[in-house]
Each structure stands twice: as structure tokens, then as C-alpha cells.
Amino acid sequence: MSYGTNIADTFRQVGVYVGRILKGAKPAELPVPQSDKFELVINHQTARMLGLTVPDKLLVAADEVIE
What we know:
Elements: E1 2-5, H1 7-22, E2 38-43, H2 44-49, H3 56-61, E3 64-66
Parallel strand pairs: 2-3
Antiparallel strand pairs: 1-2
């Protein structure tokens, strides 16, 4: 199970940040970007192999379930 930033969104933010630097902004003066998109990924197959039961409510709430 993993709960963290959306990797695609993170790469997009890095591109925007680099674009600002290439346009002449000083890195020390730029705000530190923070992700606003998070995702919950559950590896249901591994949970079953470990003998863990994942509640249905958690499976429904997950952004991605690996079977």
C-alpha cells in the first residue's frame, strides 16, 4: 500500500519550475512547489499472499488496486 504524490503531477511541476529558471528566475527566489494531487495504491495480490485482509471501503477509495 502506498499513499503519496501523483508522479505525473510531480514531473509536470518540475517542468514548470525548470521553465521559470530557464526564463531567468533565480532559483533561490522561487517558492518550493508542493503537490496537490495524492493517490492511494493498494497491491491486493501481495496483501492476500501475506494473509492480510484489505477492507472493501479502502479498496473502493483507492486510486489504483493491483490485482
